[in-house]
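FAQ: What does the model actually see?

It sees only this:
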Amino acid sequence: MWRPNGSVPSLDVVYEQIVTLPRPHLKDWRDTALLLLMLSSGGRVSEVVNAKWSDWGLGLVRLVTLKQRRKHTNPKTGRVTYDRRPPPVRTVAIDLGQTEAILREYHRRLDKEFGHTEFMFPRLRSPAAQPITRRAVYDIVHGRLGVHPHMLRHVRAYDWGRTLPLPLTMVALGDSTLKAVEVYQHPNDMDAADAIRKLNKDRLG
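And it is asked to produce this:
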């Protein structure tokens, strides 16, 4: 499915690969739920790490982008200050296929084993109070799908870019400029391959 040259497959193909992953243990449910949340929301690693159960409901999830505070040094006085602006927040629909059903079942299993947890994806050891690390998210995505986590965001972005107006794609992804999302409206080699397959099928019946 994932090609060495970085081609981006369709949303349907990636979704099917994720939902068919075996889920015999709680860790498997967590990993599947995490992958589906990232795919359906175009989630960044920092957003998923900080995702809380209180921010999810009615097919929507509120995602907060955690960024390091920007440091400013006054060249005259040498005084150091930090950017105090609040982190970017976006609310996005995640009602993609079985995503919500799998999240609910994962939540039930997590509560049964660890009780209430604030974060959606905690470290699965008692007490499960701390969220998983960014490194853990990289390991989960690469271990399950063999790709960098940002590829899931690209898959969702291309899907939105083909179907939504550019300003809506920008808002849905939480980007700040239209230029940042223009690329997602351009066809890629997978689009060309799909079009050629359809053309050949139509010609040959």
